[in-house]
């Protein structure tokens, strides 16, 4: 029988099994392991190829009353997007590329800015348990690993509004990417960082269970980052804090200072040479050196 993905599209056996080090994910197995009565995750779909899981899920949410807890996973993305609409690509089945729909109705919209940081904590926690690899967070949305003695980006997070009451959060993680497949020299992967496990099925389950746990804590606390433990945990795992950084801000402005805190609004606080502490809510952060 010709293998089919969860969307019903057929793929040739040669395409689907062309790289035996990168077996395909199974929607059925993931649903069996993640979807449960009273849990957050209601549906897990795996498609072989799409442009962007975030774009697809935002569109689906706009078309109808799509419930919270839908997960869309792609084996390959042709138009994957990061922050500031930056494009990136990776070989099929070399990573985890997925988006989730959340509807945090109990949480004031002013606190929704914590969701990308919450997702970073959940991803780092889940991968630590499931992959046995140390990770760190670069504010606001990057996952870092150490390859040799170099700090490299192995993943990223993108949050987008979906209507008035929803947020779609996309996650991309390089899992088995090899050195000759790196899109840029400063990129990394779990495999290159010496992960004990690169089987994507348990890695995805571990990340989604961790996300369910942290989202539940945060939501029960009304989105309060201190009461939920999120603010303290994020700060403990954030590689940006304690470093001299350059914040590249909207309007072609930049700000240099030591990253000293993440405040209650999720902003990065920089102590500048002028003796002023300035919060940064949006922008690219360049790590310069340890403070």
TrEMBL record:
<dbReference type="InterPro" id="IPR004408">
    <property type="entry name" value="Biotin_CoA_COase_ligase"/>
</dbReference>
<feature type="compositionally biased region" description="Polar residues">
    <location>
        <begin position="1"/>
        <end position="10"/>
    </location>
</feature>
<feature type="compositionally biased region" description="Basic and acidic residues">
    <location>
        <begin position="12"/>
        <end position="22"/>
    </location>
</feature>
<keyword id="KW-0092">Biotin</keyword>
<feature type="domain" description="BPL/LPL catalytic">
    <location>
        <begin position="29"/>
        <end position="219"/>
    </location>
</feature>
<feature type="region of interest" description="Disordered">
    <location>
        <begin position="1"/>
        <end position="24"/>
    </location>
</feature>
<dbReference type="GO" id="GO:0016874">
    <property type="term" value="F:ligase activity"/>
</dbReference>
<dbReference type="Pfam" id="PF03099">
    <property type="entry name" value="BPL_LplA_LipB"/>
</dbReference>
<protein>
    <recommendedName>
        <fullName>biotin--[biotin carboxyl-carrier protein] ligase</fullName>
        <ecNumber>6.3.4.15</ecNumber>
    </recommendedName>
</protein>
<dbReference type="InterPro" id="IPR045864">
    <property type="entry name" value="aa-tRNA-synth_II/BPL/LPL"/>
</dbReference>
<keyword id="KW-0436">Ligase</keyword>
<dbReference type="InterPro" id="IPR004143">
    <property type="entry name" value="BPL_LPL_catalytic"/>
</dbReference>
<dbReference type="Pfam" id="PF02237">
    <property type="entry name" value="BPL_C"/>
</dbReference>
<dbReference type="InterPro" id="IPR003142">
    <property type="entry name" value="BPL_C"/>
</dbReference>
